[in-house]
């Protein structure tokens, strides 16, 4: 079964942080999780507020747990708030369905995990994780 290796996860993390600096976004936190929602690697930049890493992890876990990027999940959550509230309450891992996390796919289309970011707007967060995933030679969805 394909896996998201530490090397690939770190490449995605560093690529995301570089994209944030290239665009001069606010300080970011980035979390990379595997298909079980376990953190492979994460980082919080100097100046990023204390909760940013928890938020980035919650976004990544939501994406991998529901099998969709968090832009789509945010839309669905606005349509079904009670359902998504129940998931957040009962999930065994953080669950934040807000724009800023993308699934990580290999060349064959297998989901390997997810990358989440927090620090900018949802659009900025999504932009940096997409850049990071692509830097690692993988596909963001």
From TrEMBL:
Source domain of life: Bacteria
Signal peptide residues on this chain, from the entry's feature table: none
PANTHER family registered for this protein in UniProt: SLR1406 PROTEIN
Name of this protein: Heme-binding protein
């Amino acid at each position: 079964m394909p896996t998201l290796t530490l090397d690939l996860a770190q490449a995605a993390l560093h690529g995301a942080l570089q994209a944030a600096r290239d665009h001069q976004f606010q300080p970011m936190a980035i979390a990379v999780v595997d298909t079980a929602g376990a953190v492979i690697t994460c980082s919080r930049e100097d100046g990023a507020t204390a909760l940013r890493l928890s938020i980035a992890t919650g976004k990544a876990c939501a994406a991998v747990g529901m099998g969709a990027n968090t832009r789509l999940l945010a839309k669905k959550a606005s349509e079904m708030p009670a359902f998504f509230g129940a998931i957040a309450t009962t999930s065994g891992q953080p669950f934040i369905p807000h724009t800023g996390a993308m699934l990580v796919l290999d060349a064959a289309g297998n989901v390997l995990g997810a990358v989440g970011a927090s620090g900018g707007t949802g659009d900025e967060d999504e932009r940096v994780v997409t850049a990071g995933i692509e830097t690692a030679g993988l596909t963001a969805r």
